[in-house]
Amino acid sequence: MSKIISYKDKHVLIIDDMADMRSSLRNQIGSLEITSVGVAASIRDALELLKQKRFDVILCDYYLGGSTDGQQFLEYLRTSKIISRATLFIMITAETGYESVITAAECLPDDYLLKPFTAETLRSRFQRLMEKKLRLHTIDQLHDKSAWLEIITACEEIIAVRDKYLVDAMRIKGNALLMAEKFDEAMHFYEQALSLRAMPWAKLGLAKAMKAKGNREQAKQLLSDLINDSPNLLSAYDLLGKIHTESGDDVAAIAILDKASNVAPNSLTRQRSLAHLAERTGDFKRVEQALSNVLKKTKNSPLRDPSDYVKLSGAYLAMNDAAKAINVIEDAKTTFKGTGELRSVSAMEAQVLQKTGKTELANEALDRALSGGSTGISEELAFALAKACLVNDRAATAGDILKHVLQNNPDSDEVKNAVSTIFKNHGGEEAAKELIERSTQEVVNLNNEAVLKAKSGAYAEAAQMLTEAAFRLPNNMQIVANASLSLLADVLMNQMDAIKVKQAKDFAVTIAKTNKEHPKLPEISRFLKKIQTKYQLETPL
Amino acid sequence: MSFADIAALTIHDVKNKLSGIATVAESHGDSKTVQAIFDISDTLTRLLIFYRSEHGMLRLNMNTHAPEDLIYELAANHYGRPEIQIKSDLSQAPVLWVYDEMLVRMILVNALQNASRYAKSFIIISAKAYPDHLEMSILDDGPGFPEALLEEDYSSSPVSQHGTGLGLLLAQRIASMHVNNHQHGRIELLNEHGGLFRLILPA
Predict the structure, then answer these.
(1) What is the model's pLDDT at position A31?
(2) Read out DSSP for B119-186?
(3) What is the homologous superfamily of the domain A1-135 according to CATH?
(4) Second-level CATH architecture of B63-202
């Protein structure tokens, strides 16, 4: 063997619901001279251990006895970032069927083992995986920093050597080109890879590049072909669904996700996106179908999510089945008791109770939902609160909540559409339009006022006004950019203030994160240079 | 629930129970029982894969792999006879090849189990790259395959008088599902100072 890597110092976590299997695995790990072994009989125990310390390897059985399987658990761990890229996840299965189901899902385990297996097999796999981790270590670290350009260079070095990590490096490079928004290069790169061999990952990458370039039709065609050839490639369905959604064709998106659900009926993420789309198209029967499934699969599992309950209850309400809607809410209240995640549940409860004529109880529930304010909350909760307010005759509060969301997401059609949908049953399109216009106008007025102040020489006042607004509306890039500029103008015109300069630079970083090409960024740089010169600062700003 | 689902769940249960027995046997140093359990498990896996292939439900999961990884892993194990030395020859192995690793592993394990039954002292596993195909072979120093088996058409009948039929039939089917540029994979049985099993996969 090329290199012998020591894994004696590795921390390994075993997850299996069967006591026999746990002790069998423990013995095998022990025979590799690994001494740090955590053992969990359930997802709950595993999460507890993962909270306490970092593990290098997780060995998890696909069947975990309960409603949640190993693949769902892996997806949960990766999406909620409970484990980093450095942690190896090995799935153990009893039969080969597993592999064909999850093939090329977004979230693959690092390896899978077909049981029973010998300690020697386990040792060989550890060796193989650790060697790969070692080879790709630098890239993994760059990944955690999202340093895409450096990743591309690092991959090119491996590609040039043409060792057994060639294809791994190619896949990572393609993805890095997409992440760095080098779409033309990505397209060229994938086309070249495809000319060597028609591998599904390269077709998928090419489709992503086409989509990013705005060639939706081309991407759709390529993805349809890809799904035909590789019906298990779930990420192809997901991408095609996304393109349909972006083209405003929710119905086609649902059809594609349905097809994907037939291939992998256990994917929670997919059932949730199905429910989300179906809710938008008003297909509440389908929302019920998808979410009942999710509720059943996450029952008593840490993977349960209050928003599933809220959406399901909402679907029942929309189908005029208040009794079932109440049941789901009651279920949610027991399930999430004491977790502090109940605001959206209370908001839904307020809607359902109002519908059944229990006005007083409804208002109590709404007060509970509203306590804690409406700044810094998720859009989903904001919409839930607004709906509950409208149903309970608190239109002014609803307006304030939605106005804040609109002002914080000035360019999002999705938010505007959601606001329109909410108003459909309460004052109609006109009320939505009025609110959207008022929200925009308020921001325009604020900007104008600040500009006037600056022109009259009140730079500090203008800066303070805009900075406050930027903190209130951190996603409104126009406000954030103007706040940055006004702070710098204040420093330039009045006196050097390191705190203000730092704040201005922080704002600029926020802008660059969403759009590196934002037109205000060069202006901010120019201001920084002028400040540098004026105050003769030694370290460049 | 379809038959395949129920079969999969049943096999899962049986394999779990077998794993438990294997653990106990392993702790007693009873390698014969351990090997018997692996044989039974492999037979069950083959049964399920055979069912899938009969019903058009067997799909390949084609990916790029390093043949050396698989061969190291296979050579690290023994197949019921620890006294047989298993050597690997990677001198002409390609760095990477495209195939379904799990199914190719199953084919090679089956061939290794068979070879270790007849080998006198050693087995050699090798991978050799040709311009248009990869040859993975398992050579033993035993008496070789019986003439009847060399002439037998194992690609159609799963039941063979030699008892190795299902393994060979599946090996042939899975090899043949590996296609590139209209070239299909195949298996070959030969006698060359012992039994020689060849798995040929297109480039």
Answers:
(1) 85
(2) -SSEEEEEEEE-SSEEEEEEEESSS---HHHHHS-TTT-S--TTS-HHHHHHHHHHHHH-EETTEEPE
(3) Response regulator (3.40.50.2300)
(4) 2-Layer Sandwich (3.30)
